[in-house]
Amino acid sequence: MHISQPSLSHQIRKLERTLGTELFVRTSREVKLTVAGETLIEEAPLALAALERAAERTSLAGAGVTGTVRFGFPPPASFETLGAILAAVEHENPNMTVIPSELFSAEIRGRVLAGELDVGLALHPEAVAGIRTEILRVEPVAALLGKRHRLARARSFSLADLQDERILLFPRELAPAYYDRIIEACELAGFQPQVTAFPKPSVHASLALLLGAREVGLMPASFAVHGAQAEPGVVAREIDDPQILAEWSILWPARAASAAIARFLESARRCAIDNGWLTPRPTSDLLRRRRADDRHVPRLDSGRPS
Q1: Is the per-residue pLDDT at 291 higher than 60?
Q2: DSSP per residue over 146-213, as a string?
Q3: How far is it, in rounded angstroms, from Cα 159 to Cα 243?
Q4: Residues 126, 175 contacting (CB under 8 angstroms)
Q5: Furthest C-alpha separation in the chain
Q6: Interhelix angle for 221-230 vs 283-295, to 10°?
């Protein structure tokens, strides 16, 4: 051990005083372990291994390789955008834990500012001191409507075609800037929209409401396309005149972010670049891509004899 006998004896005595018990029985003829000493021999390797693991995890956390990120997202992101971001973060940071929470855009900003969320994703978040924002995705707003609706037979239509329709939107307080952008676009198209809204609707409740063919939902195209796939009685259609753009932004605290938050943001940015999110694609392109993806999904055997 390369330690002199007096020094070793001194260190053992010091350890015994710290523990408050003797570790050895000493006689003029022999030195043997006490019951306490035998217990220490059994437990010490476990303690040292735990200490080593703690040091390793601390080092990894400092580098952002591990850690926990609390991530808030709004319902319209739940189909495609959320899944792509989480998959990218998982691929690049397999030891990171992400805790997603579904909230509305107006709520997310306050939660990040209060320290209840580490990162948020929101539609058109308003600027506020203490929070940094960065546009992550730009996409057109598309129409969602029941298959029995009079406009369902058209592949696309102008915003003015909705003049006599009731438009389904989330209440303004849940996404103020997004709501205002749609109202402003309708006014520029020459009409004041008739809006149907109900408080904090769920995704599936919103889709089910469209089955009655009395309302037209205006949603980000990624949500509209996947929503139409999720609800067979609903279709997504392109609005081509004028095109309304929805902007998704990522939010995080302006104060010094942790290494885990920084790595999460890096993964989200690469996800946006890899998927071409910063260049808006027509809704028709998203529909074609979705149909192509569906053709490559193998059908499950129903188990019935043919």
Answers
A1: no
A2: ETTSTTTTSSEEEGGGGTTSEEE---GGGSHHHHHHHHHHHHHTT---EEE--SS--HHHHHHHHTTS
A3: 8
A4: no
A5: 106
A6: 40
Q: In sequence order, what are the beta bridge partners of 102?
A: 73
Half-sphere exposure (Cβ direction) of 264: Cα atoms closer than 13 Å: 27
Round to whole Å and give the CA distance between 233 and 219: 17
Average pLDDT over residues 19-35: 80
Q: Amino acid letter at 172?
A: R
Q: What whole-number distance in Å separates Cα of residue 232 and Cα of residue 298?
A: 19
Burial class for 88, CB neighbours closer than 10 Å (0-12, 13-18, 19+): buried
| pLDDT tens digits for range 134-176 | 999 999 999 999 999 999 999 999 999 999 999 998 889 888 9
In the chain, the domains with their CATH numbers are 5-62 (1.10.10.10), 68-293 (3.40.190.290)
- Gap between the terminal Cα atoms of the chain: 76
Residue 297, Cβ density class (10 Å: 0-12 exposed, 13-18 middle, ≥19 buried):
exposed
Give the pLDDT score at 304: 37
Cα–Cα dist 255/267, whole Å:
20
CA distance 144 to 280: 18
β-bridge mates for residue 78, sequence order: none
Output the pLDDT for position 4.
54
Residue 20 region by backbone torsions, left for phi larger than 0, else alpha for psi between -120 and 50, else beta = left
- Kindly tell me the number of DSSP H helices and DSSP E strands found in the chain: 9, 12
**Closest C-alpha among 293, 197, 189, 288 to residue 243:** 189
Query: Of 108-117, 197-206, 291-300, which has the strongest mean pLDDT?
Result: 108-117
- DSSP lists the bridge partners of residue 219 as 142
Q: What is the DSSP letter of 242?
A: S
